[in-house]
Amino acid sequence: MRLGFHLSIAGSLLRAISQAQVLGCQALQIFIQNPRAWKWREIPRPEKDAFIAARKLAGLGPVAVHLTYLPNLASVDAALYQKSRERLAQELALARDLEADYLICHPGHAPLSLESFQRVARGLAAAVEQIPPPPLVLLENTAGQGQELGWLPEHLGLIMRLAGVPLGLCLDTSHAFGAGYDLRHPGGVARLLLEIARGPGLERIKIIHLNDSRAPLGSRRDRHAHLGQGTIGLEGFRHLFSHPWLRPVAAIMETPKRQQADEWRNLLTARSLISTQMLPG
Ligand SMILES: [Zn+2]
Ligand SMILES: [Zn+2]
User: Fold this and answer.
1) How much distance in Å is there from the Cα of 244 to the middle of ligand 1?
2) Predicted structure pTM score
3) With DSSP H G I counted as helix, E B as strand and the rest as coil, what are the percentages for the chain, rounded to 5?
């Protein structure tokens, strides 16, 4: 399993690559637009080519793009829904242009109903039919904050069945804990993986978002913490990574960013966690 961080592209896409190299990452996640604005920055062809070349030279892979925050693929507001669908297709096309491997998105915010899941599925299907993989679109589990859909694996499985196009899964550990899966104990890990097996399917898990949590179990709140300094704790991650059913391509950390020492510490911790994983026998 390859390890990396979500890194900033402030200024230029190349900034994330050089940061990843400094940290010794194998995998990388980025936003490809300002995550808190609808405004679109046209990326010049030379910057795209430089990104692709630098990424190859750095041996970085997989590269995942996280959809920006404003699109809501479940929105009941027709105008916002349409805008969100267009934005998804636009970011997916750019991610393809940048030769990214995955595009990760959350299901969206809406009242819990079949119609809400159908809206998400229609939006995803339209985008994937227009821009087929790669990049593969990954749906991410959420903590279920407010009206956020997707805190249960069965939500994600339902969206995938309704969409009927190739989709993968991104499993966020802090979101799963917030949603009520007690990863501190082998039983909680087993319950989560069993529900994924019954819903979307274990083979769909491509990326783990490896985050500890600052929120209590089942609080339905989304608060990330440094590995081993949150409510999940290192024992929990050990249970998760020692489970034979979990074989993601990469683990990406979205831990708080205050100083670079934090990144080094998280990376060392993550390495020690997965060093026992995937040993033969
Ligand atoms: Zn996410
Ligand atoms: Zn989160």
Assistant:
1) 25
2) 0.96
3) 40, 15, 45
